[in-house]
Amino acid sequence: LPDKLDDFLLPCDSQYIQDLYIIGTQEGIPDRREWEIRLQETLGPHFVLLYSAVHGVLHLSLFIRRDLIWFCSEVEQATVTTRIVSQIKTKGAVAISFTFFGTSFLFITSHFTSGQGKVYERMLDYNKTIEALALPRVVPDTNIYKSDPCE
Fold it and tell me: Which GO terms describe its cellular component (predicted)?
């Protein structure tokens, strides 16, 4: 883990603080709790960890400003494994969805097949992820611009 996360999360040239921080990592955190504590320490007491989702080596955290927590719905999660052997969770995706002030959000962190010559395999991983993520289930979809999932 880096010694300081301030430059990453709180750049000095920012003139305001964010309402939400959604941080996704792949193969980077040996101790999930230590990572979440470090993020919390960096963001300070005005933020709370609303939700944390894990799928193998994938991790997704949702931090929200403490005073705005009442305007966020319950969070849903889904995972997809793109490897043939599903016990090895090094490739795939983890997603969370929720509404915030009546607007629906979906965040995905993914780790697909690596290698310069494996673009086709990555596209297959992407397509499998989009088809298999069943979100939102309960969270209302507020998107007024409906599009075809194939797009």
Answer: axoneme; Golgi apparatus; nucleus
Poorest-confidence range of 16-20, 49-53, 132-136?
132-136
Q: Tell me how crowded residue 113 is: count the other CB atoms within 10 A of its CB.
A: 16
- Domains of the chain in sequence order: 5-132 (3.60.10.10)
pLDDT for residue 82: 84
Residue 136 near residue 77, CB atoms below 8 Å: no
- The whole-number pLDDT of residue 75 equals 93
Q: Which of 144, 118, 133 is nearest to 58 (CA)?
A: 133
**Both structure tokens of 30:** 């040996």
Q: Are 122 and 82 in contact (CB under 8 A)?
A: no
Locate tokens 């470090």: which residue?
38
Average pLDDT over the chain reads 85
Q: In this structure, is the dihedral angle defined by the CA atoms of residues 151, 97, 47 and 67, taken in order, positive or negative?
A: positive
Summarize pLDDT for 129-149 with one digit per residue, the tens: 888 888 777 776 666 665 555
